[in-house]
Design a protein that fits this description.
Mean pLDDT: 88
Low-confidence stretches: none
Structural class: mainly alpha
Strand content: under 5%
Number of helices: 1
Order of helices and strands: H
Helix content: over 70%
Distance between the termini: 186 Å
Number of strands: 0
Radius of gyration: 62 Å
């Protein structure tokens, strides 16, 4: 039975298998794989460049954040010092105004007391004159003398 004899057929298939495998190996090794390697190398370079840029950007961002935080701290300190200075100036000015007001009030009290004393002195002098005049009239009527003749001291 020649149909079942596979030795020649098997050897020819094996030969062509090896030839095609070698051709495929050569094509892959010298044409396809270098392009794939070049692409992978290019991709690795691209990724590494972007990772290094990312690291640089992260460092810059951290630096900017630190500078921002320092500026915020400085601004808070300046604001605190401005507030403290304003408080101390306000206290000084209010103290000065209070002292000036107290001095004015004391002066007004003194002026008022002086006016009261003058008015009191004038009133007492007028009262003394009126009492002397009344007493002179009373004595004049009681003694039947004229009020001009009676002199009270």
């Amino acid at each position: 039975m020649p149909q079942l004899e596979q030795t020649e057929f098997f050897l020819s298939q094996l030969f062509w298998l090896v030839v095609l495998f070698v051709i495929l190996f050569v094509v892959l090794t010298y044409f396809t794989l270098p392009k794939i390697r070049a692409f992978l190398n290019k991709r690795d370079t691209f990724i590494n460049d972007h990772l290094s840029k990312q690291d640089d950007l992260i460092k810059k961002a951290e630096t900017l954040i630190n500078e921002y935080e320092n500026k915020i701290i400085q601004a808070k300190q300046e604001a605190d010092s401005i507030i403290n200075n304003a408080k101390s100036q306000a206290l000084e000015e209010s103290g000065k105004l209070l002292k000036i007001t107290e001095d004015k009030i004391k002066q007004q009290i003194k002026d008022t007391e002086d006016r009261i004393n003058k008015e009191k002195k004038i009133a007492l002098e007028d009262l003394d004159k009126e009492i002397n005049a009344s007493a002179s009239l009373f004595i004049a009527k009681v003694t039947n003398q004229s009020s001009e003749e009676i002199k009270l001291s």
